[in-house]
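Model it.
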Amino acid sequence: MDLFFPLLGFAALFVFLVLIGLAMVVLPGIAVMLAGTFFLVYMLPLMTDQKMGLIEAIKESSRMALDDPIGEHVAVVAVLIILESIGSSVIFGTLLTHPYSCLFILSVYEVKRRRQITGAKTVPPSPPKNDASAEA
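Modeled.
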């Protein structure tokens, strides 16, 4: 129950901000949703795994989102949005796709945490090119 009420309040505030953005013009509401997805994607894993409070988890999730390589995080968010969009386009589809998106986010979270612990800041280099194909 330590996580329930802070998350309920945060969800109500976030929905309120999205609705205000959608009521103003559609684009601000979409911008708030995308920003929330981009910056808060690791909030729940941080709250449960690291026993962080709501504000700490928001700050850490935002920091993790802006870590290098940022293109990797953009791809993660794009895959998450596509997966959730596919699920929400079909009746009861979210029941099928949401567990997969949760597992996807948890696997990405574990990779990012492992990188933080080991201190690796970059993605491993790509394999060397084959010189034999250049000669032919």
